[in-house]
Specification:
mainly alpha, 0% strand
Length: 149
């Protein structure tokens, strides 16, 4: 039957040439190198993610600014169209007002002309009547003078 070691426990170990320590140093260096590489890769991925996030944020900001500029431009165009329409309506109203004013002036002038014509006709008639009266008076006076002679 032989001896079977079930458990082995080293409590202290010493060596003069530090072989085990040097083996560990190589593993430590290798692990440290891999850790540095992993850290650099992680930093690179973080920077890439930050750059992508910044790019997306800038794209959204530019798109939003473009949308705002387009809407402001559309608003300015609409305001200009409404101003043109309002100015056109005002011009039409002004022209209509001026035409109505001219019609009223024309009616008044035509009425004044008609009144002047009637007045002239009346004055002519009065003048003619007065002339006829004077003529008749002269005739009658002349006839009386003839008769008296």
């Amino acid at each position: 039957m032989g001896l079977k070691v079930i458990s082995f426990n080293v409590q202290n170990f010493q060596e003069d040439k530090q072989v085990i320590e040097n083996l560990g140093a190589e593993n430590i260096s290798k692990i440290s190198k891999e850790a540095s590489i992993a850290r650099a890769e992680a930093d690179k991925e973080i920077e890439i993610a930050k750059a992508n996030a910044n790019k997306e944020a800038m794209d959204i900001k530019l798109k939003t600014e473009q949308d705002i500029a387009e809407k402001e431009n559309a608003l300015a165009i609409k305001k200009a169209e409404l101003k043109v329409k309002a100015d056109t309506e005002k011009a039409k109203a002004d022209v209509t007002y001026e035409l109505e004013k001219e019609r009223e002036l024309r009616k008044r002038l035509e009425l004044e002309l008609e009144i002047l014509k009637k007045k002239e006709a009346v004055e002519k008639e009065l003048y003619t009547q007065n002339y006829v009266k004077k003529l008749n008076t002269l005739r009658s006076t002349s006839s009386k003078k003839k008769d008296t002679l």
